[in-house]
Fold this sequence. Notes:
The chain has 2 domains: 1-63, Uridine Diphospho-n-acetylenolpyruvylglucosamine Reductase, domain 2 (2-Layer Sandwich), CATH 3.30.43; 67-123 and 165-330, Uridine Diphospho-n-acetylenolpyruvylglucosamine Reductase, domain 3, CATH 3.30.465.10. 28% of the residues lie in helices and 21% in strands. The protein has helices at residues 20-29, 43-48, 84-88, 98-104, 110-115, 118-123, 129-132, 146-149, 172-177, 195-198, 278-284, 291-300, 313-330; strands at residues 13-15, 34-37, 56-59, 69-71, 75-79, 181-186, 189-194, 217-224, 230-236, 247-256, 259-268, 275-276. The strands form 3 sheets. It has a 5-stranded antiparallel beta sheet with strand order 4-5-8-6-7. A 4-stranded antiparallel beta sheet has the order 9-10-11-12. Helix 12 runs antiparallel to helix 13. It is globular and about 60 Å long. The protein starts with 12 loop residues before the first strand and ends with a helix.
Amino acid sequence: MLHLAIDEPKSFQLLSPTTIGEALSIAAEHGRDFSYLAGGCDLVDQLKHQLTMPRTVINLKQIAELRGIDKRADRVRIGALTKLAEIERDDELAPSLAALVQSAGRVATPQIRNMGTVGGNLLQDSRCPYYRRAWYCYRKGGMVCDAHHGINVEHAIFGGARCYTVTPSDLAPVIVALDGLVHVRGAGGTRTLRAEKLFVSPDENILAMHRLRKDEILTAVELPLRSARRSAFIKYAQRNAGDFSRASVAAALNIENGRVRDCRIVLGGVATVPWRSGAAERAIEGSPLSSERIEAAARAAADLAEPLAHNGFKVGLVRKLVREALTQLSV
């Protein structure tokens, strides 16, 4: 159990490039024995507990092109190193991207939001306490999911397959609900992914939470701006500040001629990836956003749930949060 007491990283060299190209060149020189540092909220914890022990840490904080919010008529592009607090305080984003502003404001504490970045929040690793500490679970290359047989209050009720960790990002369900894009750059060039394709379920790759290759850098998130689009984000955590989500919901839709159009309902904190609830969407798509249809969507959102021994409460919680989010959008 000595491993549980480790609170000091192994030595490493810290390099601070000033351009993306320079960062990628350094990464190429070090093979796979490096880690990128963005805000540091996740990586520093992993370094301290020696969950990762790179010889080199490539600090991205000096790269100006990874920062900033660029607003255009039909879209907004947010640099991956943009601080969560900047989004939380941006009054111009609130009318058209309400869910994004709401989710940024619910991440952890004000101190962490002043350090944490958009890219870091999206790409953070599993927060499962079994994975983060001494247990040798499937995600570490072992032969068992300790959470499945242990205390699993925080774990998945959707999409579990050998691993039942949940996506820890508050922004992730939002960028999927808002039909966002993520821009990535690596040694092989640049590429763009639909937000919902960024995340990886354990039945596809149990060792990864996202599709970025080792050398790649998430450079920006891009979200469409639609004047008629309504969106909302609601999160439940054991404590309002500091805790990861037990469950959350991001919802986005249009109201045209009194009926719901282009509805997207995405759950967080309850699945291994941001979980898009097609059943809940179908329950209200093309219908007035009445209390009866909202209730139907709330119930449908939990239809495929498979709770574990200690997290059955999430079924009712999902229904409650979907109900509240859609009610908020109906006003």
